[in-house]
UniProtKB/TrEMBL annotation:
Name of this chain's protein: Transporter
Keyword Membrane found: yes
Pfam families: SNF
Membrane topology: Multi-pass membrane protein
UniProtKB keywords: Membrane, Symport, Transmembrane, Transmembrane helix, Transport
Tree of life domain: Eukaryota
Matching InterPro entries: Na/ntran_symport, SNS_sf
Subcellular location: Membrane
Length: 257
């Protein structure tokens, strides 16, 4: 037991320490505040009843969230150990006669595994934000309007305008891109204009070609199509390239050995 305490004290001396209370406070804020606080919490609050959701949320923050957070900070600061060693010394059962300290490291491994699983999707979300940030420097962000090559109906941007009726009937059973911004702009001057697939048609022209607006249940936002056909495809492409590079380097290494 004395050897373990001495070893932990030696490790504590080797570890770095905070320069002041402000450093520790900023580190805690950086660890707690993330993307979930910025965009996911308002979404969950709206989805689960709006302002009424704040009542059980604030209650659980004070009853569960803050106490557990303070315990985690206290254990980390007092022991100055990682999750594997800290949980070994916390459990009295691990110090018994028939148990070794390593038998209680499972809690530490579980916490590391949980952090690793969160990092997988969280890093992906961070990459999405960078992608959106770069694309937002365009004059008109692509997720605001329809009419891009990846938007539905894709056929209407490669075929002559005279075939718009046949195209509409061909994709009538599928969802089509519908931009509220373009729809309001189309209806701004003449309320009888027809908006379809990112295009605004004169009422006379639309009547002659039997063009009608897409029903509400068959509409899909340009933001959803941008995420589905641009973001997901780009990241899938990057994943495939990395996978190919990994297997290529592995085969090269095996050939050399």
């Amino acid at each position: 037991m004395s050897q373990d305490v001495k070893k932990s004290e030696d490790l504590a001396l080797e570890r770095g320490h905070w320069g002041g209370r402000l450093d520790f406070l900023l580190a805690c804020i950086g660890n707690v505040v993330g993307l979930g606080n910025v965009w996911r919490f308002p979404y969950l609050c709206y989805r689960n009843g709006g302002g009424a959701f704040l009542i059980p949320y604030i209650l659980m923050v004070f009853l569960v969230g803050l106490p557990v957070f303070l315990v985690e900070l206290a254990v980390g600061q007092y022991s100055a150990l990682g999750p594997l060693k800290a949980f070994e010394h916390l459990a009295p059962l691990c110090k018994g006669r028939y148990f070794d300290l390593s038998t209680c490291a499972g809690v530490g491994y579980a916490s590391i595994l949980a952090s690793a699983l969160v990092a997988i999707y969280y890093n992906m979300i961070m990459a999405w934000t960078v992608f959106y940030l770069v694309d937002s420097f365009r004059h008109s962000p692509r997720w605001h309007t329809c009419g891009h090559p990846y938007n539905t109906p894709r056929e209407s941007y490669t075929c002559p305008l005279q075939n718009v009726t046949a195209i509409f009937h061909h994709i009538k059973k599928k969802k089509m891109c519908f931009s509220d911004t373009q729809y309001k702009s189309c209806k701004q001057n003449v309320s009888d204009n027809v908006y379809l697939g990112g295009q605004c048609y004169n009422v006379t022209y639309a009547t002659d070609l039997n063009i009608t607006e897409i029903p509400a249940k068959e509409r899909v936002s340009p933001a959803e199509e941008y995420f589905k056909y641009v973001i997901e495809e780009q990241f899938l492409y990057v994943f495939v390239i990395l996978q190919q590079q990994f297997f290529t380097s592995r085969l090269t290494f095996m050939d050399k050995t």
